[in-house]
Amino acid sequence: MSDTVTIFEVGPRDGLQNESNLVPAAQKIALIDLLSRSGLRQIEATSFVSPKWVPQMADAAEVMAGISRVDDVTYSVLTPNMRGLTAALEARADSAAIFGAASESFSQKNINCSIKESLARFRPVSEAALSAGIGLRGYVSCVVACPYEGTIQPDAVRDVALQMLDMGCHEISLGDTIGKGGSDDIRRLLDVVARDIDGALLAGHYHDTDGNALVNVEASLDYGLRVFDSAIGGLGGCPYAPGAKGNLSTLSLFDMLSDKGWDTGLDRDALIQAEQFIATAIASEKEQ
Length: 288
Ligand code: HMG
Ligand code: MG
Known about the structure:
Helix 3 (60-66) links the parallel strand 2 (42-47) and strand 3. The strands form two sheets. The protein has an eight-stranded parallel barrel with strand order 1-2-3-4-5-8-9-10, surrounded by eight helices. The chain contains eleven helices and ten strands. 43% of the residues lie in helices and 17% in strands. By secondary structure, it is α/β, with parallel strands linked by helices. Residues 14, 175, 177, 205, 207, 238 line the site of magnesium ion.
């Protein structure tokens, strides 16, 4: 069994998409550059979504153009449709992510279509990403609960995940979007999902609303998951998931994994520097 865990940093995207005060592109670029020097190999930099839906990400092209890329770091972006994918390719993203949900209501609220329609929309996006030779990640949101319709059944998560894998995704990130799951819920989920999908193809994306994210990571390790999403400073949430708090903090995840003997390859001091930088940047936007 591998003793290595990959921390997939989503702070510049999941974290900053939910800030009520817009963080200037220059600050986002500086944050990504600090994160790039912390040993992280996976950084979700931004998303090419409609600026009408998520104004915080309207500067996606500027951010991608401004970062100083580090070899071996994969800079990925969210791409909800062909328009997003085209922009992602123009911006030289290394990996694209389609993002759907296991909840009908959340799918409607977040991307304005049904689950079935979203999967049909994702197919050409996936084909274009693969033919361009970039990575392709799939997100399934509301893997435990939905802010609009409550409990979600694991079968619904598995079905969407399998269809995304069929489109060529190399990894499926399982999103506890509102952070309401406990480790029993995650085990109940993975009893079904990891029975049909190798844990090595799954990632855990656990928002930390109720403080369960770390125990959810621990539970997931038992099912073979070795990739976990987290956000620097525990930033984050989804504008279309009321009540969703931040992602699991990257530093907390690093500390827990290190304590338990897992190697992540990250430099703790560099993470602290990035965390302090973005906390100051956000605080100064709030003062203005
Ligand atoms: P729509 O309104 O149905 O689509 O939105 P549309 O095609 O009618 O487009 C509306 C307008 O947006 C049009 O502009 C389009 O041109 C423009 P207008 O003609 O009115 O001036 N547009 C775009 N502009 C830039 N880039 C694009 C793009 N597409 C359309 N790619 C759509 C459908 C999917 C576009 C919209 O619902 C959307 O952008 N949703 C994104 C919502 C979002 O980003 N949510 C947060 C990320 S998901 C998340 O946080 C969960 C996750 O972290 C996992 C977890 O925690 O569970 C991943
Ligand atoms: Mg999220």
